[in-house]
Automatic annotation (TrEMBL):
One Gene Ontology term from the biological process aspect of the record: oxaloacetate metabolic process
Species for this entry: Ectorhizobium quercum
Segment forming the signal sequence: none
Entry-linked SUPFAM superfamilies: Phosphoenolpyruvate/pyruvate domain
GO molecular function terms noted in the UniProt entry: lyase activity; magnesium ion binding
A Pfam family hit: HpcH_HpaI
Protein family according to the UniProt entry: Belongs to the HpcH/HpaI aldolase family.
Name of the molecule in the record: CoA ester lyase
Domain of life: Bacteria
All copies of domain HpcH/HpaI aldolase/citrate lyase, residue ranges: 14-229
Residues where substrate binds: 75, 133
Length: 300
């Protein structure tokens, strides 16, 4: 344990399951799933003529009780579409943890939703998340991350749309997409925004999914957006700190907490150089590991 402050809250966002709000069976199923959050989708998984039914389903779902210990995110349609404003009325009425904006092209898309929340007097804690899935969005990633609204909480990459708009094909390893993925991660990190990797469509191939989770973790993503319950376990596992990382983090924290380290900025821990700059990441990692352990012990 340590009393070292971290600059932003530590949250578990390893597994964010998208549930089409039109699918009442899937909504009910979500109540018993071990994902860290649910993205209630009003956008691409809901046909235009079913949008109101989907909003009504969400109202019924929230009225029946929220999911203990998990984040509730509502993905709206673009504000400029015929559905976005009505979706925002649902968001304001239901007060989820976050509203996810699709196909964000620039800071103005984020600010418009943040302004609607502010004007409605929505709780300051309701975050705005941005889907990074258009060529303009990726090009403008830094400007979007630096929009300046305290509501901006996370980027979620959407490779289906990005592939559609760029013509880059689906391919194991995501070779030609890596520069764009890393640009989104870098922009998010520059402004303290969390960053979630894209869905994997092939939900029956869990080996390929595990490989993509490992890759996403290596790129610096906090977690993954999911489309099927079968993906939850691997996502939770691969985006949780592993035992060796936790041991290393605890050793760094302990080494700097030792009175003998007072006034020292550089130490040797387990044969490697560590500096004071390593303390905050170590504290965050240890805190994440504690949250993950708590969640594992929770009954869903
Ligand atoms: C992809 C699916 C349509 C497959 O559904 P289905 O054929 O029903 O799968 P299964 O028979 O294997 O389902 C087994 C049980 O699990 C439940 N289930 C399935 N998916 C979900 C879910 N997402 N949430 C909760 N529960 C789920 C089924 O109901 C079955 O339950 P039971 O009958 O009791 O056994 C389906 O998985 C699906 O619709 N997935 C989500 C699609 C979605 O949300 N799309 C939008 C997000 S994708 C995106 O954002 C892309 C991004 O924008 C980009 O550009 O990349
Ligand atoms: Mg999309």
């Amino acid at each position: 344990m340590t009393d070292i402050a971290v600059s932003r809250p530590v949250r578990l966002r390893r597994s964010l399951l998208s549930v089409p709000a039109i699918n009442r069976r899937a909504l009910e199923k979500a109540r018993g799933l071990a994902c860290d959050g649910v993205i209630f989708d009003l956008e691409d998984s809901v046909a235009p003529e079913k949008k109101q039914e989907a909003r009504d389903n969400l109202a019924g779902f929230f009225a029946a009780g929220r999911l203990a210990g998990r984040e509730h995110v509502i993905r709206i349609n673009a504000l400029a579409s015929a559905f976005g404003r009505l979706d925002m009325e649902t968001v304001i009425a239901l007060a989820p943890d976050a509203v996810l904006i699709p196909k964000v092209d620039g800071p103005e898309d984020v600010l418009a939703v943040a302004d609607l929340l502010d004007e409605a007097g929505a709780a300051a804690g309701i975050e705005v998340w941005a889907m990074m899935e258009t060529p303009r969005g990726v090009l403008n990633a830094a400007a979007i991350a630096g929009t300046g609204t305290a509501r901006l909480g996370a980027f979620v990459v959407g490779l289906n749309d990005l592939r559609k708009d760029t013509g880059v094909p689906m391919e194991p390893g995501r070779t030609f997409l890596i520069p764009w993925l890393m640009q989104v991660v870098l922009a998010a990190r520059a402004y303290g925004v969390e960053v979630i990797d894209s869905v994997s469509n092939d939900f029956r191939d869990l080996d390929a999914f595990a490989a993509e989770c490992r890759q996403g973790r290596g790129m610096g993503f906090d977690g993954k957006m999911l489309i099927h319950p079968a993906q939850i376990e691997a996502s939770n596992r691969h985006f949780s700190p592993d035992a060796a990382d936790v041991a290393e983090a605890e050793a760094i924290i302990a080494a700097f907490a030792d009175p003998a380290a007072a006034g020292l900025n550089v130490l040797t821990v387990n044969g490697r150089m560590v500096e004071r700059l390593h303390i905050e990441p170590a504290v965050r990692l240890a805190a994440k590991a504690r949250l993950a352990a708590e969640r594992e012990n929770r009954t869903t």
